[in-house]
Specification:
Blueprint lengths: L1 E7 L1 H4 L15 H11 L4 E7 L21 H8 L4 E5 L13 H16 L11 E6 L17 H4 L3 H12 L2 E4 L16 H20 L4
Parallel strand pairs: 1-2, 1-3, 3-4, 4-5
């Protein structure tokens, strides 16, 4: 059995846009990915660690515990041995209370990669591979979350390219979610059901050869 940790935010938690409801596991993209990989003959378990509002490395001034860097090394320790960690963060860096841009978020991703690689895992346990997934660009925010993400569609410009450059610098894998999906047609930020399905299957195709490297 191979283990994948998905470390992300509400886009992967599966929030239903404009509601506080959550999609079922088999509807969320991490679940779609697990089902796809298992149906191909691989024995895979996906561990979801997805927190609504999580940033890369910054605090939320209104809600505690949203800094993605805090406690990440311990999460790697808790769930080890891991074969792969999938990082999909950044959208919340562009909330209206922040002035960060794509470069800032890319540096946050770099810090998260470093935290994973320096985590205090037990001797002899493997260092997991890392796949960074750039979230789709924020569109014009709509509905109840519009004030929270006002201006996000401008601040996030260039995120995919910035992430790809950082991944090349730190030697980890990269995938652009925006190459297969857009953000929600409903609220402009999250993912709709069909986007979860498309992303889960696309990431499964990227992940499958990475896991094959770990099979003896």
């Amino acid at each position: 059995m191979q283990h994948i940790l998905v470390y992300s935010d509400s886009l992967s938690w599966g929030i239903v846009p404009t509601t506080r409801k959550r999609l079922h596991f088999e509807q969320r993209w991490p679940g779609v990915m697990e089902i796809s990989l298992c149906s191909s003959g691989q024995k895979v378990r996906v561990i979801e660690d997805c927190l609504n509002g999580r940033r890369t490395v910054w605090d939320d001034p209104f809600k505690p515990g949203r800094n993605g860097l805090v406690g990440l090394a311990q999460r790697i320790e808790i769930h080890s041995p891991l074969d792969l960690v999938v990082l999909m963060l950044g959208t919340n860096d562009f909330q209206s209370m922040h002035e960060y841009n794509a470069w800032h978020s890319s540096q946050g991703i770099s810090a998260l990669v470093s935290a994973i690689r320096t985590a205090p895992i037990e001797p002899g346990m493997p260092m997991p591979q890392i796949l960074v997934v750039a979230p789709p660009a924020i569109r014009m925010p709509k509905g109840p979350i519009a004030p929270k993400f006002e201006g996000g569609e401008t601040k996030c410009i260039g995120l995919s390219a910035a992430y790809q450059l950082v991944c090349e610098e730190v030697d980890c894998h990269f995938f652009d979610a925006g190459s297969v999906i857009t953000s929600s047609n409903v609220d402009g930020v999250h993912l709709d059901l069909e986007q979860h399905w498309a992303l889960g299957n696309a990431v499964a195709e990227v992940v499958q050869p990475l896991l094959s490297r770990n099979v003896l």
